[in-house]
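Retro notes
What went well: the complex prediction finally ran end to end.
Inputs used:
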Amino acid sequence: MSVNARFFASLKERVGHGSVSVDVAEAACVRDVWYAVTGEGPGEEVLVAINKEYADFDAAVVDGDEVAFFPPITGG
Amino acid sequence: MSVNARFFASLKERVGHGSVSVDVAEAACVRDVWYAVTGEGPGEEVLVAINKEYADFDAAVVDGDEVAFFPPITGG
Amino acid sequence: MHIEIRHQAFNPWHELEAYTRSASHRNQAGACATFVGSMRDFNEGDTVRTMHLEHYPGMTEKQLGVIVDEVSKENGLLDVLVLHRVGDINPGEEIVLVGCWSSHRKAAFDSCRLIMEALKSKAPFWKKEKLLDRERWVSRNTPG
Amino acid sequence: MHIEIRHQAFNPWHELEAYTRSASHRNQAGACATFVGSMRDFNEGDTVRTMHLEHYPGMTEKQLGVIVDEVSKENGLLDVLVLHRVGDINPGEEIVLVGCWSSHRKAAFDSCRLIMEALKSKAPFWKKEKLLDRERWVSRNTPG
């Protein structure tokens, strides 16, 4: 199945893409998506959202999900 | 000696004056000034200021002082 | 820093705009917390038609100055604006405006609230409400 | 209630004036607490020339909506305004405006601060600062 992985701010620069389509196995979780794109562990604090709702690295993903990765928030 | 007793808000209406000159004995305190004007105890919560600084009923007054009495504050 | 007793109605946003336009702390103040208190047409179960706000000229300004100085120093504020209405006031009109400027948000938030609470217990102002059928002095402020 | 991501510079006092002019809660809101966060020309020991603010279109608005709904219901607010800047920002320009209206001051004060703290930890925005000689992502917000 395929999900849309998105990266923001410093993670976008680190990973080199803002958005990339990723093929993952059935029963994959967010961690698998991250690993499929980067080939390494997150290393620093990385926040996760599935379809624009907060999630964590163990959350399951399904075909067509938008899985976003971003650093700690610095707005306001 | 003489002090200027001032009354504000509901106390002005109760006492019947906004400002009155009061003769009190040497070594008088705020309580004596109140009693000289009203002839009774304060009865309810009354705040006190001498020369525009907060004081209490036991504070000593001197000739020429402005001694103010007012109810709890309701500004803001 | 500016503290003022105002006898006429004011628009708090016009006041804040004019005050910040002349401010020297423009690029240092990362945070501004404000509070605006307005007259409601309803209080303690009754319709209020209009209100009279009395103060103690001289003492009110002095006590506001003490409050603002203390809170400013304690929290390292860059600037403070306090404006308080007196006289006859109609529903919907503003009674008080407090603005606090600081480098970071904690000091601005803390200070704005501290100044309002101190003002409501220590700055001599008294409200008399005109109801439909009678007048009454407001006996006490609602707790913060 | 109004939540908006703004790409252009805004004057917070103009926004507040326009918003309150159209408000239906005019004579019920006794209290309005606001917070304005602005860009400083100095951060973590360095002069900052300009800043870029990135967000996550769709998620940012959604999370701001969740925050405002929760705080509003919890505190019985009459109205809330949230405006947040994105894009290229210069020192002295405003980044965020939060306004909370309620019957009494406690709810307005509490809510304005709660919304700001939640926004700073849950609404996806990221700041990149342009210093004199390099660029850097701000790594973390200062604690409230």
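What we learned: Residues 30 and 103 of chain D are 5 Å apart (CA to CA).
What to try next: split runs per interface for comparison.
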